[in-house]
């Protein structure tokens, strides 16, 4: 597949300048992956991160399908496995904490809700930073306040007052991307799913065991409790509402909002809310999918959540890995950025389209409205959790959903120049 693709895309990699410099906005997941590969493909990366240091909030995330091939090409697959959270599966529980359905890690061929490689976002971001920092200029505590494409270069003015020039600028600054707003204005379609989510760490309790526990309360509320590999527990609160703008409130107000929304939710919610009070890694955001006709404008291009947040799909990190690799590879192979960006979009679009497809009714299943709907959903899940059924579903969906590797092997292409 790789060699076929490489031939059909006809890369001309001769005479590439090694002096091109690229500003990457954001040191989350996509940013450091991009920095690592850009350096490897002969381009100088500079990463600017708005936060004063790496942002280590967040809970367990996973990398699936073709994203794992990128981990392998980065040479970090072993260290990621060594740092995985060791969760044994996910249990759907009722308000008394009784398990109604249980899916072990091995269910669905290791690709269920809890995959066979789950890692704390903080660990992943740290590993990616460590792996890229020796060849990357990292700037923390600053961000672009204006981005001016001058045709043959991009002039960036930073909030600190510094002004610098780059050959290209890449927005890897997440779902609320300021790069996207500065460069694309309102040409973005933001599909609000009317769901808010909060992540934070709470003290471990004996009841947490080694399984993630998923609890639904009526009125479209979810409490998810996940033991980590650091002696603490990661909590997630999800709720649905048609109100907009909660993501813009300050942290104290967001915590107050959650205390009100979850006040009568039952299960271990009082303990979760009490742990939230002292959580200093509290993270809150609206869940939305970003849909754009194109991801580049002149010398500026978007990658990861900034360009194609996939909402509730759980594929955001996988897309960030694949997108960063393809974009770095195409920039490495093409002196002409317009060609690079066109090929990036052509190769990346199918992954994004597949990830952004929401199965009708999936939000209803994740956040049922009434006690009856929750009980019915749990009965269906307890049937689905039987090994014969999970095995059947795995076989049925494997050929359709497996994220096959359909991107070129840029290392080989560049080695042949
Ligand atoms: C703190 C945090 C916690 C998260 N926790 C979870 C989680 O628990 N589960 C989950 O599924 N997903 C979580 N996510 C989202 C997840 O990381 C992404 O969906 C996915 O990994 C894609 O990564 P990304 O690099 O595109 O974006 P992100 O990981 O969101 O990274 C974007 C980076 O850009 C920085 N940034 C933002 N604006 C600017 C600016 N103007 N200038 C410079 N830098 C800027 C941000 O501080 C951040 O470091 C979290 C994101 C963040 C930022």
Automatic annotation (TrEMBL):
Top-level taxon of origin: Eukaryota
Transmembrane segments: 21-38
Gene Ontology molecular function terms on file: FAD binding
The entry's keywords: Membrane, Transmembrane, Transmembrane helix
Keyword Transmembrane helix assigned: yes
Matching SUPFAM superfamilies: FAD/NAD(P)-binding domain
The FAD-binding domain, residue ranges: 21-307
UniProt cross-references to InterPro entries, sorted A to Z: FAD-bd, FAD/NAD-bd_sf, FAD_aromatic-hydroxylase
UniProt xrefs under PANTHER family: MONOOXYGENASE, OXIDOREDUCTASE-RELATED
Protein name: FAD-binding domain-containing protein
Organism of origin: Didymodactylos carnosus
């Amino acid at each position: 597949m790789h060699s076929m693709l490489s031939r059909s895309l006809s890369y001309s990699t001769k005479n590439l300048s090694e002096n091109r410099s690229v500003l990457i906005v954001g040191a989350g997941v996509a940013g450091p992956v991009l920095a690592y590969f850009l350096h490897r493909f002969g381009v100088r990366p500079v990463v600017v991160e708005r936060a004063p240091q790496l942002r280590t909030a967040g809970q367990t995330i996973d990398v699936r399908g073709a994203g794992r091939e990128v981990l392998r090409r980065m040479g970090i697959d072993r260290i990621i496995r060594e740092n995985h959270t060791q969760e044994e599966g996910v249990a759907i529980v009722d308000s008394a904490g009784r398990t109604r359905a249980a899916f072990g890690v091995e269910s669905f061929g290791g690709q269920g809700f809890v995959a066979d490689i789950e890692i704390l976002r903080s660990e992943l971001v740290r590993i990616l930073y460590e792996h890229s920092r020796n060849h990357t200029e990292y700037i923390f505590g600053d961000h672009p306040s204006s981005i001016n494409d001058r045709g043959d270069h991009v002039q960036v003015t930073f909030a600190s007052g510094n002004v610098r020039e780059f050959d290209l600028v890449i927005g890897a600054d997440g779902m609320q991307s300021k790069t996207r707003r500065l460069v694309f204005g309102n040409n973005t379609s933001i599909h609000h799913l009317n769901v808010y989510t909060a992540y934070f760490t709470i003290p471990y309790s004996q009841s947490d065991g080694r399984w993630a526990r998923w609890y639904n309360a009526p009125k479209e509320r979810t409490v998810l409790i996940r033991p980590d590999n650091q002696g603490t527990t990661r909590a997630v609160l999800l709720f649905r509402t048609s109100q907009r703008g909660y993501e813009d409130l300050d942290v104290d107000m967001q915590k107050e909002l959650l205390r009100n929304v979850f006040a009568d939710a039952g299960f271990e919610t009082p303990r979760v809310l009490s742990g939230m009070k002292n959580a200093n890694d509290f993270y809150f955001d609206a869940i939305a999918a970003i849909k754009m006709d194109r991801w580049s404008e002149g010398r500026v291009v978007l990658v990861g959540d900034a360009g194609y947040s996939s909402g509730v799909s759980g594929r955001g990190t996988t897309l960030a890995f694949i997108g960063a690799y393809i974009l770095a590879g195409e920039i490495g192979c093409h002196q002409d950025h317009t060609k690079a960006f066109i090929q990036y979009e052509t190769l990346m679009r199918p992954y994004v389209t597949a990830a952004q497809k929401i199965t009708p009714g999936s939000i209803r299943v994740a956040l049922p409205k009434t006690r009856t709907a929750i009980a019915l959903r749990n009965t269906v899940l307890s049937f689905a959790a039987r090994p014969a059924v999970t095995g059947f579903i795995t076989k049925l969906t494997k050929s359709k959903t497996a994220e096959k590797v359909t991107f070129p092997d840029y290392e080989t292409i560049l080695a042949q120049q």
